[in-house]
Amino acid sequence: MKISNASISQKKINKLANNSPSSVMSIWEKIKDWFGLSQEKKVLTLIYNIYFNQEATILEKSRDFFSLKKLAGEQYKNEFKHIVDGNDIQYIIDFKDSSILFRSDITPFIENIKNELNFDLQNESNKFLEIFINDYYDKKNYDAEDYKKKVISFRTALMKHINKKKNYPNEKNFSLDIFEQKKSFNDKYNYLKENSEKYSVSINKDKLIEKLYNPLSLDKQIELRKQVEVDIPRCDLKYDDENITDINSLESKLALPNEKDIILIFELIHQGIFPIIKDSFDKYEPIASMYSAFTGKTSIDIKNNEGVYVITINNKKEIKESDIEKLIQLSNFILNDFDYDSMKLYIENFIDDPITKEKVDAALEQYKIQIMEITEDSIGDKFNYKKNRFLLLEEEINVKFEFNPSQDKGLTISTDESKVEYSLLKS
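The chain above was modelled as a monomer; its predicted structure follows.
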């Protein structure tokens, strides 16, 4: 039997049925009236995981405690108590005549929240932590039919995020007013750097290679060559450190007898590869899949090592002096770190794996319909990136390929040197 990713066999449940006051079955006897009889196996599994499973982490035990609380009848939910005391957290079931308690260090939970939501709870009061933990797991445990409650709970979490930032006025955030007061380009650019955050996404090499090997029709091959012919003068292309400025020079350098091999290299170096790369993450990334509106530069380096080609492709969008006015005009449309955190939180709570663009778009559309029924709150349109927020700040795509024409499907990718990085403004 598997409940909430925790497994326990019926044999093990029966084995635990002894007269010890700390056994799973003795707890069940005390609280079985709080649940429906059909829930016995679920409840036994959760009790075991929370109070007896030494291998379960504090995060798993916390999750299962609130799952157990959710299963209980409404009049019994108050018997499930969680108490924060300094660095400790306790999960208690109160039987009136007695109780059972699990105690643990709260640090792993705080670290997880910092990584997951970019909330630093380290210096918060015990009471604040208790309320936050309750809301955090309450939100996670809503069923699909509780969508309206889930949206309200989600927006409550966002408002806490916004209010928390307001409580720390010394924290550096981007301000368009301050930005416009800066006189020189260097001052403006340094201010942007100080008030932006960098993120990176790994590329799924198998997914990318599969897309690149998709067969091209003859018509598409002809069109691809025309595209590469236009692309080469626009980029910085080098072959064994020699500048290449036209397609004929490149073809003579490659000197590959197999037309398919030449087409594959064309596929690697033409501008159309960047959307393919952004569609080749381990899972769909709504923010990383967007683009910067600023000045871009592509560099391609091809090295021939005894018939094995090492091809490094780099596309970098940087803010140049000519972009400053554009940045002022677009400032309300540029994504920030709040968008990153809120989108991550949204996907976790509203979208099941595997995450796809279609699922994200459909879920956001459903969300928008729901919030039309909600009166205005302090979030406003802040979390609504599909409508108002759709541009990255700076970004860089770097992929290193190795291609051996003598091998069948001889294309490989260096994982360590292949990734997408982008910057967001600090909100």
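Confidence is low (pLDDT under 50) at residues 1-21.
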